[in-house]
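Ticket #4471: structure export looks truncated?
Reporter: QA, pipeline team
Priority: medium

Steps to reproduce: submit the single chain below to the structure queue and open the exported record.
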Amino acid sequence: MIEPVFLFKETGFPLSAFWAALLPCLAVAVFLLFHQSRKAGLKAALPLLFVLMAVPTSLFLGRLIYCLVRYEDIFFSETGEFAGLGNFFTPSPYGFSIIGIILGTLISAVFSARAQGIRTSALTDAAALPAALLIAFCRWLEPLNGQGYGDFVETPVLQHFPLSISSEMGDYFLSVSFIQGSLAIVLFAALLLMGKQLDARGLKTVFFLLFFTASQILPESFRRDDALFIFIFARVTQVGYAVLFSLTAFTVFWRHAQSTGQVSRFYLNSGLILLGVVICILCEFALDKTNYPKSAVYAVMALTLLMMSLFTWPKARIERTVS
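Actual output as written to the record:
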């Protein structure tokens, strides 16, 4: 559909335009991380160690999950013969799972913080703002990698950048990457504007994890690119976001229950979140396997995700204030 863009193709050493554009964006995010760490009173060695661990770990896990899901395309030839593990390290078929990248980043945060004798939440709080900015950059740049597009756009007024992406054949596709990048930059702005309201330990981390994952689940349904699928209709990224949101919510509920002495509330609140996840799964099933109006299904999913977020967030604020 949308072809990747390469620089210097005529030289015999083509350079991916996506990675070339992403490197300065990464530099900006790293600079912001050091600035946020300094404001939080953290030594420069901590964010440096974190970056040195997070870049290779996140890329490795991102590629690993991508290859595990699409192992037949990557490790086997068209005739079904095993082609070896070398394709894991080659750019074609290229691709990384953002869930693996997030997982690698979180793992690196835990180990680097412990190595410096610092609470992990102190580092992740400092990393929340640059993470939102970097994700926005990554999503906006996705079309350069031939990804981030949705269905055909037939309405002329929408057939313009950045709302749609054009192919070499002159077709226009919904720019899902623009939607997801814009949602990430809204999250960045919210983190920036709320300022001292999120000063309690771990509050920025919780805010980022809750609202980032919840806001990205719905746009993933719009994708028609090389999205990774499991269980036929469910996307790996959606499942990963749902798991990450649920684990964050469960942690909030448990700490809130302990601080208020109402442990039974933990099970009730967690059950309501699981109900919301089930509703989202049913919505995704309805989009793929039924003829229900898509607009109505998307509305139900969006409302469910919004209610899940607004239900969980106040308990995080109360718990952090009490503690």
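Status: closed, not a bug. The export was complete when the record was re-opened. Leaving a note from the reviewer for reference: The chain has a mean pLDDT of 88.
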